[in-house]
Amino acid sequence: MTKNSHVITVESLRYDIERAPREHRDPFDRLLLAQAKSEGMGFITHDELIPFYNESCVVKV
Prior knowledge:
Elements: H1 14-19, H2 27-39, E1 43-45, E2 58-60
Parallel strand pairs: 1-2
């Protein structure tokens, strides 16, 4: 691992993933959304179910 590599632990995202609504049921999308939220990034998607998460980081296209 280099000193410039970016490491994020799944454990640090656990709280957000467990709080996520279950309408979508896609664990990988929930993980990506939790990471975007925890790092202050946007989550751009065309998936119609992602807005159910009602998070400010979600951008529907």
